[in-house]
Design goal:
Helix content: 25-40%
Radius of gyration: 27 Å
Structural class: alpha+beta
Largest sheet: 3 strands, antiparallel
Shape: rod-shaped
Strand content: 25-35%
Number of helices: 2
Number of strands: 3
Strand order of the largest sheet: 2-1-3
Oligomer: single chain
Distance between the termini: 70 Å
Length: 101
């Protein structure tokens, strides 16, 4: 009788649903600025920066472009980006406008 009971318990526990591990949504947690300095329309060097918010990234890119213009025959170009994973929530740091409706 004990063997039958033990066999039943083992069988029922094997049929019990298993908890599936939750999948963590991956993606960047920061905004990245890649800024390229150009002299006579030829790239001289590229710098990479990371920022908490999108607005900080764009403000810094604008300031760097203005600083690059001050040197003769030099300009600067930048790209702010963040790799979002599917299902990743957007936060207030991902907005470009300071105030949203």
């Amino acid at each position: 009788m004990k063997k039958l009971f033990l066999l039943t318990v083992v069988f029922l526990s094997a049929c019990a649903p298993m908890k599936e591990p939750s999948v963590a949504v991956g993606g960047d947690t920061h905004w990245t600025l890649q800024f390229t300095w150009l002299k006579n329309n030829k790239p001289t060097h590229t710098q990479t920066y990371q920022f908490v918010s999108r607005m900080e990234c764009f403000n810094q890119m604008y300031e760097m472009q203005e600083a690059a213009k001050k040197v003769k025959n030099q300009i600067g170009s930048g790209l702010c980006f963040k790799a979002f994973a599917e299902g990743q929530e957007r936060t207030s740091n991902d907005l470009l406008a300071r105030y949203s409706k």
